[in-house]
C-alpha cells in the first residue's frame, strides 16, 4: 500500500500566472483589483453593501486551502489513492474554477483529479487553460475529459480509453500501488475504461458531501456576504410586487439583483402567485398577480462566491389578508421556528425527526420533502425527513459546529386555494445555532412586526 504523507504545498511549488504583473492593490477578499482579470467575483455594489452592514469579507486563498485539506482528509481516511470529479460544483469546491457551469451540468466536458497527497489536475474544456491560471493549487491543466456522445459520437469508447489512461498515469504517479479511485459521476464508457485498467472505482459523491459539510471560518464569511446580497435582491423583488404584474416580471428582478452583485445563477425558478402557490414547485410563468393574493418564492440562488442562498418567503400582494392566509402563515412560521430551536451540536438527525413540529393533519399530504437540509455551494448533505418519510428515506447522523442548514416548510391543504413557503438558513455553532437570515417575515400575514 502506498504511504500517505500529510498534504502541503510549498511556495516554490505554487503555480503563478506569468502574464499577470504583481498588484499592490487588492480587493477586500484578497483577489487582484483588476477589471480585466479572468476570475469572477463580487461587484463594487456588493462590497459597498457589505461594508455598510459591517460584514467581514472572506479571504479566498484560505477557503481554497481549507477545501483541499478537507478533500485530502477524506481520501486518506478512506484509503483512496485519488478522487475523480465531474460534478461542476465538486470541481468548484476542489479548484474554485468556473467554466460554463450550467452547460457543463449536462455536457460533461470538464473533470478534476485530486490525489491523496493534494495534487490537483484540472481537465478543462478546450481553450480554457487561462481560466485557472490564477489558482496555484491547480498544479496542471489538461484536456480530454469529454467523451459524451455529442462530442465523441461513435468514437466514445476510444476517447474514454484515452482519458482513463491519463487517470491511470496519475494514480500510479501519486498513489503507487493503491488502485482505489473515488469517482463522483462519469459516463458509462469512462467507468468501464477505468475498470479495464484495473482501477477499483468507489463512490466519490460520499467523499465530497462529507468534505463539504463543515464550513471553514472564511466559507462562513462568504456565506454571510452571499446571504446579504441575496436579501438585497429580495428587497428589490418585494418592492416590484404589484397587482397587474406578471410572475415572470417580478421574478426577473431577483435574477437581476443577483447578477449585478456578482452572483452566478438561480438553481430553479420557483416563484408563484395565487392558486399557483398550491401545490408547491410551480415555476414562474406569465400569470398576472391579483390584489390580495399570496406570492411565494424559494430563492435557490447560487450567489456571490458561488455560495447557495436558499431562502423562502411568502408575501401578500395587497393589504387585506384573509383568515385562511393568516392561518397558513402562522402555522408555517411556528413550524420553522420550533424546528430551528431543536438544532445544536451533537443533536442527532433522528432526534430532529422525532421532535419536529407536527403539521396539522390536513397539511400533511402536501408537505415538503424535507424538514431541513444542508447548504453550501448548493443544497447539500444532510436531508432530514418528516416522520412520515423517515423510515423509507431517512438516515442517521449528528449535527456538528460549522454545518450550515436550511430549515423550511410548505403549508397548503390538498385542494386548497393557496399555500405558504418559508425557509431560513442557519449556522450550527459550538453552543447552538445562529440564523444567518435577516430578511423580515410578512407583518401583514402574521399580525406583528419582526
Characterization of the model:
The strands form 4 sheets. Strands 4-3-2-1-5-6 form a 6-stranded mixed sheet, sandwiched between helices. A 5-stranded antiparallel sheet has the order 14-13-15-16-17. It is an alpha+beta fold. The protein is built from 14 helices and 17 strands. Helix content is about 35%, strand content about 15%. The protein folds into 2 domains: about 200 residues, Creatine Amidinohydrolase, Chain A, domain 1 (3-Layer(aba) Sandwich); about 230 residues, Creatine Amidinohydrolase, CATH 3.90.230.10.
CATH topology of the largest domain: Creatine Amidinohydrolase
Largest sheet, if any? 6 strands, mixed
SSE class: alpha+beta
Unreliable runs = 1-23
Helical region count? 14
Distance between the termini: 59 Å
Amino acid at each position: 500500500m502506498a504511504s500517505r504523507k500529510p498534504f502541503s504545498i510549498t511556495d516554490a511549488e505554487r503555480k503563478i500566472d506569468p502574464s499577470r504583473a504583481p498588484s499592490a492593490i487588492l480587493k477586500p477578499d484578497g483577489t487582484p483589483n483588476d477589471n480585466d482579470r479572468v476570475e469572477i467575483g463580487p461587484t463594487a455594489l456588493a462590497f459597498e453593501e457589505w461594508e455598510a452592514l459591517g460584514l467581514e469579507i472572506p479571504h479566498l486563498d484560505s477557503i481554497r486551502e481549507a477545501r483541499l485539506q478537507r478533500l485530502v482528509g477524506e481520501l486518506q481516511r478512506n484509503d483512496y489513492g485519488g478522487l475523480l470529479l465531474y460534478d461542476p460544483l465538486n470541481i468548484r469546491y476542489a479548484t474554485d474554477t468556473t467554466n460554463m457551469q450550467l452547460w457543463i451540468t449536462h455536457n460533461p466536458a470538464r473533470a478534476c483529479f485530486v490525489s491523496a497527497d493534494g495534487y490537483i489536475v484540472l481537465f478543462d474544456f478546450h481553450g480554457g487553460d487561462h481560466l485557472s491560471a490564477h489558482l496555484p493549487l491547480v498544479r496542471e491543466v489538461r484536456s480530454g475529459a469529454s467523451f459524451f456522445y455529442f462530442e465523441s459520437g461513435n468514437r466514445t469508447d476510444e476517447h474514454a480509453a484515452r482519458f482513463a489512461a491519463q487517470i491511470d498515469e496519475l494514480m500510479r504517479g501519486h498513489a503507487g500501488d493503491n488502485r482505489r479511485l473515488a469517482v463522483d459521476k462519469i459516463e458509462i464508457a469512462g467507468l468501464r475504461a477505468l475498470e479495464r485498467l484495473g482501477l477499483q472505482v468507489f463512490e466519490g459523491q460520499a467523499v465530497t458531501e462529507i468534505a463539504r459539510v463543515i464550513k471553514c471560518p472564511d466559507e462562513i464569511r462568504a456565506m454571510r456576504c452571499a446571504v446579504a446580497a441575496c436579501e438585497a435582491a429580495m428587497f428589490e423583488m418585494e418592492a416590484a410586487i404589484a397587482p397587474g404584474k406578471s410572475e415572470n416580471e417580478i421574478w426577473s428582478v431577483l435574477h437581476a439583483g443577483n447578477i449585478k452583485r456578482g452572483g452566478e445563477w438561480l438553481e430553479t425558478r420557483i416563484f408563484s402567485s395565487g392558486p399557483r402557490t398550491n401545490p408547491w414547485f410551480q415555476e414562474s410563468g406569465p400569470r398576472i398577480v391579483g390584489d390580495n393574493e399570496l406570492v411565494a418564492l424559494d430563492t435557490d440562488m447560487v450567489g456571490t462566491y458561488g455560495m447557495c442562498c436558499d431562502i423562502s418567503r411568502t408575501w401578500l400582494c395587497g393589504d387585506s389578508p384573509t383568515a385562511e392566509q393568516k392561518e397558513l402563515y402562522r402555522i408555517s412560521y411556528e413550524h420553522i421556528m420550533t424546528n430551528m430551536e431543536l438544532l445544536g451540536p451533537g443533536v442527532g438527525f433522528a432526534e430532529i425527526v422525532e421532535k419536529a413540529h407536527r403539521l396539522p393533519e390536513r397539511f400533511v399530504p402536501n408537505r415538503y420533502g424535507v424538514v431541513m437540509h444542508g447548504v453550501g455551494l448548493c443544497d447539500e448533505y444532510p436531508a432530514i425527513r418528516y416522520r412520515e418519510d423517515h423510515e423509507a428515506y431517512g438516515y442517521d447522523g449528528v449535527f456538528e459546529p460549522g454545518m450550515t442548514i436550511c430549515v423550511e416548510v410548505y403549508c397548503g391543504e390538498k385542494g386548497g386555494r393557496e399555500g405558504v413557503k418559508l425557509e431560513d438558513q442557519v449556522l450550527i455553532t459550538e453552543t447552538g445555532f445562529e440564523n444567518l437570515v435577516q430578511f423580515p417575515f410578512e407583518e401583514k400575514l402574521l399580525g406583528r412586526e419582526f
